[in-house]
């Protein structure tokens, strides 16, 4: 004897409803960015002031060239204290991560959630035509899930 569903027959979902939940709809567009020639100490001050854990590094053309995080700043701080060297000369370009993974703004937010889970990265920059246009975080994906109605992952 099979298991009977108390909810009744399931409706067939169309993929167009789910596809409407794009990364670009939930990404942050106004970002705190850093320049490669900035001092790490300035980055630390900005991270504390804006209560963020990192940010993209862009050149004068707003092209993404790296990402710097709290962890990168902590490494710099730790090494300067270990070797008893002042931090005044430490630039972002020497501490930032240069090989940055990005996500396409047209990607479905649930596909993006899978990328987050597989990579263990907390935020991804969004680049369009070589320019930084935004950033999506795990928190943004959670916000997208709150916009959904019911348990069928449809946006109503």
TrEMBL record:
Pfam families assigned to the protein according to its UniProt record, in alphabetical order: CBS
Annotated InterPro entries: CBS_bac, CBS_dom, CBS_dom_sf, Diverse_CBS-Domain
Keyword Zinc: no
Protein name per the record: CBS domain-containing protein
Alphabetic keyword roster: CBS domain
Domain CBS: 27-87, 96-156
Organism: Subsaximicrobium wynnwilliamsii
Classification via PANTHER family: CBS DOMAIN-CONTAINING PROTEIN (PTHR43080:SF2), CBS DOMAIN-CONTAINING PROTEIN CBSX3, MITOCHONDRIAL (PTHR43080)
Entry superkingdom: Bacteria
């Amino acid at each position: 004897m099979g298991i009977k569903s108390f909810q009744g027959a399931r409706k067939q979902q169309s993929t167009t409803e789910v596809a409407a939940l794009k990364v670009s709809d939930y990404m942050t567009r106004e970002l705190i960015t850093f320049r490669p020639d900035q001092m790490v100490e300035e980055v630390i001050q900005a991270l504390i002031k804006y209560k963020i854990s990192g940010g993209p590094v862009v050149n004068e053309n707003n092209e993404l060239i790296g990402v710097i995080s709290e962890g990168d700043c902590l490494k710099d701080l730790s090494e300067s204290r270990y070797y008893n060297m002042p931090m005044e000369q430490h630039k972002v370009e020497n501490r930032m991560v240069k090989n940055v993974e990005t996500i396409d703004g047209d990607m479905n937010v649930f596909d993006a959630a899978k990328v987050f889970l597989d990579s263990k990265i907390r935020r991804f920059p969004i680049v369009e035509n070589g320019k930084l246009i935004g950033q999506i975080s795990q928190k943004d994906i959670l916000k997208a899930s709150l916009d959904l109605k019911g348990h069928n992952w449809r946006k109503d």
